[in-house]
Specification:
It contains nine helices and no strands. By secondary structure, it is an all-alpha fold. It folds into two domains: about 70 residues, no CATH class; about 110 residues, no CATH class. Helix 3 runs parallel beside helix 9. The longest helix has about 50 residues.
């Protein structure tokens, strides 16, 4: 849990500040307080820019994955709606059955696979079965040929939405950028640790609060960077709702 990490970081930070106070004379820290304050101003400003940028990026990515699920669900519902105009009811039923199987497999297996940045093999197989059911629809009348053309266009929209969603789902914050943010977080925390405040207990509270804020921020960024694992996850409800409606 994120909150346990934050509490643990605050406890460790407080202990470190207390240990530093017992090892290093407070007078030495008091003399350099203005230099440390200037250091915190510069590093803190740069860190704020980086943190805001990363939060914006991961939040946008999270929303794009969720909107991708909704877009694909809408395209799947349109596909079934068009299939309902086929004169051959067995073909329409096969498409609905293949769609329900695809949604069930996708909702159950895909999040675990995408969390590891891997494709779900059984979801791909189920989608291939859905496309085969659409392309193999039987045509009995001239009207069916018109419906079939629209059916293929609906399938193309589903494929486009799915490909776009999977591409966004595999996107993560680059490791180098993440390592830089962690490094600057440690450097910034070091500045708070060395800040010479006359009251020991006030300095402990300040250092603990800084550690808690930095840990909370990093934990939120890391969690939202992967929309399929952790505390905040995308919802497959739009797709399961479509499967229930067309069933």
């Amino acid at each position: 849990m994120i909150y346990f990490r934050v509490a643990g970081a605050m406890a460790v930070a407080g202990a470190l500040r207390l240990l530093l106070s017992s090892v290093l004379p407070l007078e030495a820290l008091h003399v350099e307080v203005h230099g440390v304050a200037a250091y915190l101003t510069v590093v803190g400003g740069l860190y704020g820019i980086m943190a805001a940028f990363l939060l914006f990026v991961v939040w946008e990515q999270f929303n794009h994955v969720q909107m991708g699920l909704e877009k694909e669900a809408s395209a799947l519902e349109d596909l079934c709606r068009v299939a309902g105009f086929l004169a051959e009811r067995d073909s329409a039923n096969r498409i609905r059955l293949a769609l329900r199987r695809y949604v069930k497999v996708t909702e159950s297996d895909e999040p675990q696979q995408l969390a590891a940045r891997q494709a779900s093999a059984i979801a791909c197989e189920s989608f291939a079965a859905l496309t085969q059911a659409v392309r193999g629809a039987e045509l009995q009348t001239q009207k069916d040929r018109v419906v079939y053309d629209e059916l293929l266009r609906a399938l193309a929209r589903v494929m486009e939405a799915r490909d776009e969603r999977l591409t966004v789902s595999a996107t993560r914050v680059p490791e180098t950028l993440w390592n830089m943010v962690v490094f600057v977080s440690v450097v910034l925390f070091g500045g708070f640790l060395a800040l010479g405040i006359h009251s020991v207990w006030l300095s402990i509270l300040l250092v603990a609060a800084a550690a808690g804020i930095l840990t909370f921020l990093l934990a939120v960024i890391k969690d939202m960077d992967n929309p399929f694992a952790g505390v905040w996850n995308v919802s497959y409800a739009p797709m399961t709702d479509v499967a229930a409606r067309v069933g």
